[in-house]
C-alpha cells in the first residue's frame, strides 16, 4: 500500500472508530458530525473529505459491531444437514443478532445510503480484512451483499440446485420471509413492541418454518425451533 493510501486509511479509521465509540456509549441516534469530529480531534469539515454524508459514517461504524454475527452465522450454517436447514439456521442467527442490536442492523441493512451501497460494504472489508478471517469463501459472497433479498435468494438457489424446492417458489419464500422479519424488526426498532430477542426470534422462525413447509419442500422434516440447540444464550 502506498504512503498516501496508508494515510487515507489511517484518517478514515480515526473517524470510524470515533463514531463506533459514540454508538457504543450513546447509541446510533446520537451520532453527529460535530461529536465525531470532537472525539477524533479534527474539525467537522475534515470529515467530509473522507465521507460524503453522515449515513456512510454510521454505516461503517455499525459494521464494527457485526463481527460477532458474521463469525457466528458461519458456525450456524455448518450445523445444517441440508440446504433448507442451512437456510433456516442462517435466518435464526440473523434474527437473534438483529433483534438484540436493532439500531446496528438498521444502519447496516436498511438505512438509506444512496447509490451503490455494496461498494461501501466492499470498501469496509478492504479496510478491515481481519473481519473475514475464518469465514468460508461461499459465505463471503453473501456477506458482501447488503441487499436482503439477494442474500436470502443465494441460499435458496442452493436448495433449488439440490432439488429441495421448486424454482417457482423461490421468490415467494424469499419475499415472505423478509417481510415477516421486517414487520417484527420495525416494531422493535420503533418501540412498538417490547419483545426479548429470544421471543422475537421464535415468532419469526415459526412463521418462516410454515412458509417453507407450505412451498412444496421435498425430503425435509419440519423445522422445530423449540428443539434447536443453536440459539444464542
Automatic annotation (TrEMBL):
Superkingdom of the source? Bacteria
Q: Name one Pfam family in it.
A: TetR_N
Task: Give the matching SUPFAM superfamilies.
Answer: Homeodomain-like (SSF46689)
Q: DNA-binding region spans which residues?
A: 32-51
Could you tell me which residue ranges the HTH tetR-type domain spans? 9-69
Keyword tags = DNA-binding
Task: Read off the PROSITE patterns from this record.
Answer: HTH_TETR_2
In Swiss-Prot or TrEMBL terms, this protein is called: TetR/AcrR family transcriptional regulator
Q: Which organism is it from?
A: Scopulibacillus cellulosilyticus
Amino acid at each position: 500500500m502506498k504512503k498516501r493510501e496508508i494515510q487515507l486509511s489511517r484518517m478514515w479509521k480515526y473517524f470510524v472508530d470515533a463514531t463506533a465509540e459514540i454508538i457504543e456509549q450513546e447509541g446510533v441516534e446520537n451520532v453527529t458530525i460535530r461529536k465525531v469530529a470532537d472525539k477524533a480531534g479534527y474539525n467537522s469539515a475534515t470529515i467530509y473529505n473522507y465521507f460524503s454524508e453522515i449515513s456512510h459514517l454510521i454505516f461503517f461504524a455499525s459494521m464494527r459491531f457485526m463481527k460477532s454475527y458474521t463469525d457466528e452465522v458461519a458456525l450456524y450454517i455448518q450445523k445444517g444437514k441440508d440446504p433448507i436447514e442451512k437456510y433456516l439456521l442462517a435466518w435464526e442467527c440473523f434474527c437473534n443478532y438483529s433483534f438484540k442490536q436493532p439500531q446496528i442492523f438498521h444502519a447496516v441493512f436498511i438505512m438509506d445510503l444512496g447509490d451503490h451501497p455494496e461498494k461501501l460494504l466492499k470498501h469496509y472489508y478492504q479496510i478491515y480484512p481481519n473481519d473475514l478471517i475464518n469465514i468460508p469463501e461461499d459465505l463471503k459472497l453473501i456477506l458482501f451483499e447488503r441487499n436482503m433479498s439477494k442474500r436470502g435468494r443465494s441460499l435458496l438457489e442452493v436448495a433449488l440446485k439440490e432439488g429441495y424446492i421448486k424454482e417457482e417458489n423461490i421468490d415467494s419464500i424469499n419475499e415472505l420471509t423478509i417481510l415477516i422479519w421486517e414487520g417484527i424488526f420495525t416494531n422493535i426498532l420503533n418501540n412498538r413492541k417490547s419483545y426479548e430477542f429470544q421471543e422475537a426470534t421464535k415468532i419469526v422462525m415459526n412463521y418462516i418454518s410454515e412458509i417453507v413447509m407450505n412451498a412444496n419442500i421435498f425430503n425435509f422434516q419440519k423445522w422445530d425451533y423449540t428443539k434447536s440447540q443453536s440459539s444464542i444464550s
